Amino acid sequence: MKKKIAFKTLGCRLNLYETDSVLNDFAKGGYEIVDFSEEADAYVVNTCTVTNMSDHKSRQVVSQASRKNKDAVLVVTGCMANNHKNKLEGNNTITYTIENDQKGSIFQLLDSHFKGEILSVEDLKRDRFDFGPAETSFHSRSLIKIQDGCNNFCTFCIVPHVRGRAESRPWKSIEENIKKVLEFGYKEIVLTGVNIGRYEHDGLNFEGLVEKILEIPGDFRVRISSIEPEGFGDELFELFKHPKLTPHLHMCLQSGSDKILLKMRRQYTLSEFVSMVKKVRKIIPDFNFTTDIIVGFPGETEEEFLVSCKVIEEIGFSHIHTFKYSVRRGTRAERLPDHVSEKIKNERSKIIRNIAIKHKRKYRTSFIGKTQKVFVEKINSKGMASGFGENYVPVKFKVDEKTVLKKFTTVLIKEIESSEDPILIGETIK
What we know:
Distance between the termini: 50 Å
CATH architecture of the largest domain: Alpha-Beta Horseshoe
Structural class: alpha/beta
Number of domains: 3
Helix content: 25-40%
Largest sheet: 5 strands, parallel
CATH topology of the largest domain: pyruvate-formate lyase- activating enzyme
Shape: globular
CATH class of the largest domain: Alpha Beta
Radius of gyration: 22 Å
Number of helices: 13
């Protein structure tokens, strides 16, 4: 009988990309991929460690996996495996602890294990880009890893310690990956990495890379995932005129206070961030900006917090990931004075979330009467299709003879739901 294997991924899109690739190795190798809730012969948990909450969630999932089948092989990988390796290796319910740059060899390790062969973790190849294109995947879009690691060392961030220094993937490898997934039938690709705006390989920068990707023949579109607001410029903004490049950026602000940005060791000022937003919206007025905000950074005063509130009101982000500052051991911020209480952080998080909900509705409502080219990700039993438009707004509509799963459909937006995370409702263009 086929061995069954289950996966659980926490954290960023980079983790999702890497899980998809590893999963695909097992599917090609004759293993049966099952849901994480089912009993399996092996469980692979791809962890996150960016905050205390991430650690907590990762530990919970590892504990859940260890209880599902006491005889199963349990593999823990991802950033928590780098950050807390010794502690994880001391957990006798975990079979293997695999660091990030060994993740591409998980299939080789487990396949050898089930065949009764001896393969040590220390013998696994270390290669941050040793991931093949995924035909079998958990996702309708294809994630494409273009870069890993970061050299910025923001004072709050553990990522450079667990992902390493910045390294960019060669263009030919990226091109081959994209062409292969297009052959598989994917229609939307998402560029991902740790600090993708700093992409640099053999003289090719991020703007040049995106331009080359847009030149690849085929009916597909390109989405840029989370990006730091530095390392690129006006050349990228002009590329958004291209019909394949979707008008959406998740650009990480973190704070509206220049004083706090300096304490965070961010590589930009507020005025530079706002200038970028204005330049893009001059080209595409309804461009969708989403962002991250950290509340309660050490020393953040009420006045500085209110400056952040004012800035996000003025920019009008359609979505905000709100993070309470979380101490990461070994970072500079751990040693900063005037740490903010959890009570104040909770209060500030609530205020930011309320602002975010308001602007999400305002932005999505602006599409009523307009069209969106929707990538159809699901069709339910009631004949309703759903997916995201090019502006990364969620849309649902009643299927007709032109509606095809995992294809594009042009939809006229007619109304919006009344929930906190409202979906746009429309109808296909006749």
